[in-house]
Amino acid sequence: MTMQIADSVSLSAPDARARAHAAAARDNLRTEPRAVRIVIIALAVLFLSVFVVLPLVVVFAQAFSKGILAYFAALAEPEALAAIKLTLLVAAISVGLNLVFGLVAAWAIAKFEFPGKTFLITLIDLPFSVSPVISGLVFVLLFGAQGYFGSWLRDHDIQILFAVPGIALATTFVTFPFVARALIPLMQEQGTQEEEAAISLGASGLQTFFRVTLPNIKWGVLYGVLLCNARAMGEFGAVSVVSGHIRGETNTMPLLVEILYNEYQFVAAFAIASLLAMLALITLIAKTVLERHLDEGHDASDH
Amino acid sequence: MTIEVRNLVKKFGSFAALDGVDLKVNDGELLALLGPSGSGKTTLLRIIAGLDWPDAGEVSFNGEDALAQGARERHVGFVFQHYALFRHMSVFENVAFGLRVQPRAVRKDEVAIRARVKELLDLVQLDWLADRYPSQLSGGQRQRIALARALAIEPRILLLDEPFGALDAKVRKELRKWLRSLHHEINVTSIFVTHDQEEALEVANRVVVMDKGRIEQIGSPADVYDNPATAFVHGFIGESIVLPVEIDNGAVRLGDRLLNLMADGIAPGTSKLFVRRHDMLVRPSGSGAFEGAVQHVRNFGPVQRAEVALWGGETIEIDAPRDKELRAGDTIGLEPRRYRIFAGA
Which of A194, A204, A207 sits opposite B86 (nearest CB)? Predict the structure, then answer.
C-alpha cells in the first residue's frame, strides 16, 4: 500500500515537469530565442535613447546650463516674449480656421455623395505632401510685391507678406489636413442614421449638429485640434519664407530659436526650444489620453 | 391617418428603385411591405418619412400633400433597421430627445417630459434601463427603445424598417407578437418593411408584396398566400413546386406527358405551373395527374418530405402526411389539390 502511494506521488512530479517542458517548447515555437530577443530590445532602446531621449535631455541641459535665473531672463527678453505672443496668436488663428474648414470638409465628405469627392480627399492631403518651403513660396508668389495680388494689395495699403496675416495664412495652409483627417474616417464610420433619426424626431439642422453630430465626434475634434496646434506652433519652413524675420515683430518661436543659435546665444536659443519641447511632451500625453477615448467611441459603435 | 401614394418613381442612377408605385394605407392599419432586397420597399418607406425624395409621383397624408413638408414637419415616427440610437445619450435621454427639441412655445416642461418618458419606457417594459447607454443593451432592448423614442413625439404614422432584421430567431418571434399587441393598444397607422414572409403574414393586417420597384400584390395574409396574383408572389411566399409546362389548346403538357389539368384562359406556349408542396397529394400509381418514382424520403417535423422524379422529366419535393407510407423506389401518382398556371417562361 505504502509503495503504491509513493509511486503515485513520484509519478506525478515527472508528469508535471514533462508538461512544463512541453509548454516551454510551445513557447519557443512562438517566440525567438532569448538572446535574439535581448538584442532586438537593446537595439530599440539604444536607438530611442540616441535619437529621441538624448536630444530632449540636451535641450533642457543647454537651457539651464547657466542656471535657472539665466533661463528665465532669456525668456523674459522682449524679443522672446514677442515671439511667444506671435506664435500663440498665429496658432489660435490657424487652429480656429482649420477647425471650421476641417469640420465642413469632413462633413461634406462623410455625409454626402457628390462628383469629385475622391479628388477633394486627395486635395486635403496636399499640404502634407508638399514641402513647407514650397507652401510658403506659393504665398510669396500670390501676395508678394511682384505677385498676382501684389500691386492691388499695395494700392489698398494691405500688408500680408512679412506680417501676421501672411504667417497665419502659411501656417493654416500647412496644418489644414489635421482636423479633416481626424474626422473623415470617424464620421464615415458613424454614417448618417443618427442625424436622420434626429431630424425625423423634429430636430432642426442646428439642433441635430450640436446635440447629435458634435457629441459623437468631440474626441476626434479634440484630437485633430491638438495635432494641428502642435504643428502650427512648431512650423518652420513655410513661416520662414513669408515672415521676413523682422526682430520682435514677425519672428515666431522656431524662427527665433534659429536666429539666437546662429548668434551663439545658446542659453536663449535652448530656453525657447525647451518651451517647444514641453509643448511636444504635453501634446504627446494629451494624444494618448484622447486616443483612449476615441477607441472607446469605436467600441461603443461596434455593439 | 390615411396615406396615399400615387405613381411614385425613384431612380438611383439607371437603377429604378421605385417604378410607378400606387398604394393606399387605411387609418389605423398595420401594413407590411414584403419583398426581396432591392425590391424598393425601404426606399418607399424612406420617401413616406421624408428621408428621401421621389423623382416623380405624389404622397399625401389625409389628403394633404406630404411632399411639401420636410421630414421634420411630417411628424412621422421612424424606427431604423439598426436602431440609430444616440450612442452618447442614456436611454432616458434618447426617448426624451423628440420632446426636448420641440420649439420653445410648445415644449413641455421638465416634469412633463420626465413623466412622458417614464410612461413610454413602461409601455415598452424597459423602465429599469433608463440610465443605461445604448451600447449596454441587447438587440431586442435597443429595438424597443428605438420604438419608444419614435412614439415620444406622438407620431401620426409609425414606420419601421426591417424592425426585427438584426435579431436572433427567438427574440424575433417574441417581438413580433409584442409589436402586434402594441399596435392594437396605440392604434397608429403603421407600415413595416420586411423580407421575411412569415413575419409579414403573421403580424400585418395587409401585406404589400413588392419586386423590382413595383407592387406585385396587395391583400390580406390569407389572400396573398392562397391566391397569389403573379408568378413572383407564388414563388416568393410559401414553398412552391414550379414546373415548366407547355399549354396547347387548353391541354397541359409536361415534357412528353399530357397532364389531366385545366388551363382555361392561359395563352398557348411555355408557362409555369405552381403547386404548394403540401398541396401535392399522394395517390396510387396510375391515378392522379402526375406519375413518378420516389427517390428518397426524409422524416422530420409534422410531415415527410419526399423527392419524386416525375415521368416527363423534372424532380420535385413534396410534403406528405407522415401516416402515408412512402419508400424509395415506389412508383406513385400525384394529384395537385390546387394549382396555378402563369403564362410565360
Answer: A194
